Amino acid sequence: MSTFYFIAFLSIFFSILVISAKNPVHSILYLILTFFTFTIHYILMNAQFLAIVNFIVYMGAILVLFLYTLMLINLNKESEPVKPFMVKIAAVFGGGILAVALVSSLKSLGVSDPVVLKNPELGLVKNLGKVLFNEFLLPFEVSSVLLLSAMVGAVLLATKDPKEPKATI
Amino acid sequence: MESLTQTIQAVPLNHYILLSAIIFSIGVMGVLLRRNAIVIFMSVELMLNSVNLLLTAFSVYRGDASGQVFVFFIMALAAAEVAVGLAIIVMIYRNTNSIDINVLNRLKW
């Protein structure tokens, strides 16, 4: 039980560091740590398939994509101007109001039951595969079309058009 | 594995909702606070992940596998979204030599 609270504290701590780090590379490294704590959460809930997918897709693919883009656009030190102080206060205030609204609506629910794993095989690949290929077969196939179109779109957007004259903005 | 799953036996569902709400709010704060487009993107990822965690917690709570399949679809969607979004950021950087989102305020009207 205390493992959950320790890992939850770590996820909140690292996610605060993500949005407060000055250097974008540090932000990405803290985001990797945050996703690692999420993987531990999945393992604690015995969702082994999601833990592995989270580890491979988020920490392996998406974060490397972020780092790669950061390397491509070659940020120098003075490229991020800071927002005015009042805007920062307003932003933290707005986020805090959202958190307070969510938590106070949660309070009105009263004490909830503990999360108990009724079926220990719930998150295993064998069980999830049966659900995925029976009830969710059509969304699964549609998501392949989505990934293909995203890949084509990304390549189309990111490649330079050689005929077009250089933009002068 | 048995000893691992024993550790969550006593965590109330409310605490999972609380954790996800806090991390979602941190993501919203990040979108509002920062001007670097890539950091804003990372905050969006943070929000998506908090929702994923909550869906998994609900799925375990109800004993229904559909929630975890949904998380899988959200992950596929996030991968596609990140690829297209980062391509757009690279294109913006090529045109304006900056990824400060205030450069793009002419898109407003």
UniProtKB/TrEMBL annotation, chain A:
<keyword id="KW-1133">Transmembrane helix</keyword>
<keyword id="KW-1003">Cell membrane</keyword>
<protein>
    <recommendedName>
        <fullName>NADH-quinone oxidoreductase subunit J</fullName>
        <ecNumber>7.1.1.-</ecNumber>
    </recommendedName>
</protein>
<keyword id="KW-0560">Oxidoreductase</keyword>
<feature type="transmembrane region" description="Helical">
    <location>
        <begin position="85"/>
        <end position="106"/>
    </location>
</feature>
<keyword id="KW-0874">Quinone</keyword>
<feature type="transmembrane region" description="Helical">
    <location>
        <begin position="28"/>
        <end position="45"/>
    </location>
</feature>
<comment type="similarity">
    <text>Belongs to the complex I subunit 6 family.</text>
</comment>
<dbReference type="InterPro" id="IPR001457">
    <property type="entry name" value="NADH_UbQ/plastoQ_OxRdtase_su6"/>
</dbReference>
<keyword id="KW-0812">Transmembrane</keyword>
<dbReference type="Pfam" id="PF00499">
    <property type="entry name" value="Oxidored_q3"/>
</dbReference>
<dbReference type="GO" id="GO:0016491">
    <property type="term" value="F:oxidoreductase activity"/>
</dbReference>
<dbReference type="InterPro" id="IPR042106">
    <property type="entry name" value="Nuo/plastoQ_OxRdtase_6_NuoJ"/>
</dbReference>
<keyword id="KW-0472">Membrane</keyword>
<feature type="transmembrane region" description="Helical">
    <location>
        <begin position="136"/>
        <end position="158"/>
    </location>
</feature>
<keyword id="KW-0520">NAD</keyword>
<comment type="function">
    <text>NDH-1 shuttles electrons from NADH, via FMN and iron-sulfur (Fe-S) centers, to quinones in the respiratory chain. Couples the redox reaction to proton translocation (for every two electrons transferred, four hydrogen ions are translocated across the cytoplasmic membrane), and thus conserves the redox energy in a proton gradient.</text>
</comment>
<feature type="transmembrane region" description="Helical">
    <location>
        <begin position="6"/>
        <end position="21"/>
    </location>
</feature>
<feature type="transmembrane region" description="Helical">
    <location>
        <begin position="51"/>
        <end position="73"/>
    </location>
</feature>
Automatic annotation (TrEMBL), chain B:
<keyword id="KW-0813">Transport</keyword>
<dbReference type="GO" id="GO:0005886">
    <property type="term" value="C:plasma membrane"/>
</dbReference>
<dbReference type="GO" id="GO:0048038">
    <property type="term" value="F:quinone binding"/>
</dbReference>
<dbReference type="Pfam" id="PF00420">
    <property type="entry name" value="Oxidored_q2"/>
</dbReference>
<dbReference type="InterPro" id="IPR001133">
    <property type="entry name" value="NADH_UbQ_OxRdtase_chain4L/K"/>
</dbReference>
<keyword id="KW-0472">Membrane</keyword>
<comment type="function">
    <text>NDH-1 shuttles electrons from NADH, via FMN and iron-sulfur (Fe-S) centers, to quinones in the respiratory chain. The immediate electron acceptor for the enzyme in this species is believed to be ubiquinone. Couples the redox reaction to proton translocation (for every two electrons transferred, four hydrogen ions are translocated across the cytoplasmic membrane), and thus conserves the redox energy in a proton gradient.</text>
</comment>
<keyword id="KW-0520">NAD</keyword>
<comment type="subunit">
    <text>NDH-1 is composed of 14 different subunits. Subunits NuoA, H, J, K, L, M, N constitute the membrane sector of the complex.</text>
</comment>
<protein>
    <recommendedName>
        <fullName>NADH-quinone oxidoreductase subunit K</fullName>
        <ecNumber>7.1.1.-</ecNumber>
    </recommendedName>
</protein>
<dbReference type="GO" id="GO:0030964">
    <property type="term" value="C:NADH dehydrogenase complex"/>
</dbReference>
<comment type="function">
    <text>NDH-1 shuttles electrons from NADH, via FMN and iron-sulfur (Fe-S) centers, to quinones in the respiratory chain. The immediate electron acceptor for the enzyme in this species is believed to be a menaquinone. Couples the redox reaction to proton translocation (for every two electrons transferred, four hydrogen ions are translocated across the cytoplasmic membrane), and thus conserves the redox energy in a proton gradient.</text>
</comment>
<dbReference type="InterPro" id="IPR039428">
    <property type="entry name" value="NUOK/Mnh_C1-like"/>
</dbReference>
<dbReference type="GO" id="GO:0050136">
    <property type="term" value="F:NADH dehydrogenase (quinone) (non-electrogenic) activity"/>
</dbReference>
<keyword id="KW-1133">Transmembrane helix</keyword>
<feature type="transmembrane region" description="Helical">
    <location>
        <begin position="13"/>
        <end position="33"/>
    </location>
</feature>
<keyword id="KW-0874">Quinone</keyword>
<feature type="transmembrane region" description="Helical">
    <location>
        <begin position="67"/>
        <end position="93"/>
    </location>
</feature>
<keyword id="KW-0812">Transmembrane</keyword>
<feature type="transmembrane region" description="Helical">
    <location>
        <begin position="40"/>
        <end position="61"/>
    </location>
</feature>
<keyword id="KW-1003">Cell membrane</keyword>
<keyword id="KW-1278">Translocase</keyword>
